[in-house]
Amino acid sequence: MEIAFFAAGAVAVIATVLAITRLVVVHALLYLIVSLLAVAVVFYTMGAPLVAALEVIIYAGAIVVLFVFVVMMLNLGVRTQETERKWFAGRAWIGPVILSELLLAEVIYLIVRAPVSAAISSISTPKQIGLALYGPYLLGVELASMLLLGALVGACHLGRTSKSGREARQ
């Protein structure tokens, strides 16, 4: 379990650094997805499969889809669409695919190696997680919700066009 924990942690750190340093937004989003999946594996190795599932569903699913919608809302024209087609070439997927395959191998290793009875005894119930989140971690949960609200308002502001911008396009 420790080997999988440290390997997933290493993948998370590498993918996060690559997501931060990419100039192409789509590439950064791919690495961000890999990073979030690696964090989910870390949670799973720590005995919190529900939190790992929530990590995948909420962050790797919903939040990254929100980011993709923001990129689509910005729609910078035909020239950028041609550039995006080039970005989806095979080379752009090599890094995320390698890191994702490493994570998949870790998950398969953990599922095969861990006995079922040990996994069932360490599962947290939703009630336990809810009490923990809205008990001592209430401030952190509320701060995260405010951060997401700020990101949503920023996305709406960036996607909105002014009256002079609409006249210039016509």
Describe the 3D structure.
The chain has 170 residues and is mainly alpha-helical. Helices cover 82% and strands 0% of the residues. It has 9 helices and no strands. Helix 1 runs antiparallel to helix 5 (94-113) and helix 3 (49-74) runs parallel beside helix 8 (138-159). It is flat, with a radius of gyration of 20 Å. It starts with a helix and ends with a helix.
Topology:
Blueprint: H1 2-21, H2 25-45, H3 49-74, H4 78-87, H5 94-113, H6 116-121, H7 126-133, H8 138-159, H9 163-169
> What string, H for helix and E for strand, traces the elements in order?
HHHHHHHHH
Whole-number mean pLDDT: 78
Would you report the number of β strands?
0
Q: Specify the helix fraction band.
A: over 70%
By helix and strand content, what is the structural category?
Answer: mainly alpha
Largest beta-sheet characterization? none
Question: Are there runs of 5+ residues with pLDDT below 50, and where?
Answer: none
Give the DSSP E fraction (strand runs of 2 or more residues).
Answer: under 5%
Top keywords for this entry?
single chain; 170 residues; mainly alpha; 0% strand; flat
